[in-house]
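User: I want to check something. If I give you two sequences, will you return the structure for each one separately, not as a complex?

Assistant: Yes, each is folded on its own. Here is the first sequence with its structure:
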Amino acid sequence: MNEPTVFSKIIAGEIPADIVYRDEEITAFRDIQPLAPVHILIVPNQAIATVNDIEDADAELIGRMWCIARDLAKQEGIAESGYRLVVNCNADAGQEVFHLHLHLIGGRKLGSSVSR
């Protein structure tokens, strides 16, 4: 069995986080190193390491992540001005935590790319 990720520990309540959404399948919390005024990570509660590990049976769960991102963008007041949704897959793409997560980033002009 793989070691629990920091995200698994947040979901389990073992590590504190600023949680903005939680249900039986998905948890969303503020990134501790935000790239913009709004930077929320949306993660499935079940451990899926990367996009490559998504199974066809996960399609509804993955779709719900995007719907929650849309709703959080409205809640955070960035839906109309614009926001970016980002998923990194594996090390060359910059994935640091190997628990699938969707970045919701906004609250300022982002330009063609987002960086620190």
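And separately, the second sequence with its own structure:
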Amino acid sequence: MRLLLYITLAALIGTCSSPPPILDQVLDVGELRVVTRDSPVSYTEGPDGPSGPEFDLVREFADGLGVELVIHRVDSISEIVPYLNSGKAHMAAAGLSITESRREYLHFGHPYQMVDMHLIYKLGTGKPRGIDDVIGRPIEVMAGSSHADMLQALSVDYPDLDWTENADAEVTDLLAKVANEEVDFTIADSTEFNIQRHFHPDLRVALDLELGDPIAWAFPKGTGDGLLARADRFLINADREGYLARVQDRYYGHTKKFDYVGTRNFIRHYESRLPRYRRMFEDAGSEWGVDWRLLAAIGYQESHWRSGAVSPTGVRGIMMLTEDTAAYLGIDDRVDPRNSIFGGAQYYVRQTERVADTVDEPDRTWMALAAYNVGFNHLKDARMIVEWQGGDPDTWVDISNALPLLAQRKWYTKVPYGYARGWEPVLYVNNIRSYYNILKWLTANEEPEIPVEGELPEEAAPEPDVLKDEREITET
């Protein structure tokens, strides 16, 4: 009898000491707790709320599980493994590479992205031809990162290689240090570098340290594999159904093409030209409910912020309004900067209102910009093509693939509004997305400086006011 009691007690103690599988915990509690980090490739919080590729994916995953998403954000990547293993979170979605050192403590799910690992330097500081040329020069990377693991692996063959690990910095901070020549090198994944090079156009890839590095979600060991299996199933379906491609286009689509000269000119014109018109963009944005920086990005794409700009086809002003558009908006003088900016804002808002209600942001914005450039009727034709191809006409990634087909006879002869140079609105939208992101970065930590009347900076004049028609432009 006593033996039976001991066995029963032992069984009860064993049951109490073993937590239920992590999937059961998630479903029982009704929430999915995810640890992530503050990074453009993971999760950020802005005026419009949280965003980021990892956030979009885990939000969709939590919705599929029927539970609430709870985000736990840590300051550095080195905190993620101990935080996850402490039991405070069910999984990590933080742009983590699958490394052997992390496999000791974590299970990784299905890789949903491949990135390249770059050694980054600043143009003009001496590009290394190999690791031998890096030895003796200062390198700084994130502590606890796959980048630190890479340097550790390289030190086996290059024992004199030396570097510093920073536990308080993200890749964005380290890239800024390289740009400011505070350190010679850092390491960045291709996704992070492709974003940040638009802010620091002098940064360059010195060496490719690894190609096709897998990125995946991570789960604590010893908690069952049910949640991992559900996550794998979700990501595989998201890839098959195109959702993963839409998320990647949303955050990385505009970063793949980089124009060094155009980016440097934009930053220079931000300082020399925009101050004259900034208050007008801000006022127009306030009146029409649009981020003034988006309006300014449209204005730069259209005219490079020159009020006297005119195209060979007669399109004029900062926002490049046609005569018909100006008449439609009730504008008499489309060259007047304030008229042009307010008219452009009104016309842009009109395009957003015409986009189907089923289109969510930010795809709605990209489609409205395309309509601003090529005309809304051609956007409707592109939607028809997407439907014929079995795609989703409510997504920009599918629309951007269909628009160029409007220049092919086999397609434009089948749609109501015919031929269009459909590649142009795709380039147009990508350029504005880049300018908009740079403006958000440039203005993130400053209050708008309103020029005092009578002390306006002179508009740069060396460049002619006659522009190639922005509706014929292919690259700025």
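Because they were folded independently, the notes below concern the second chain alone. Residues 1-17, 450-476 have pLDDT under 50 and may be disordered. The first helix runs from residue 2 to 17.
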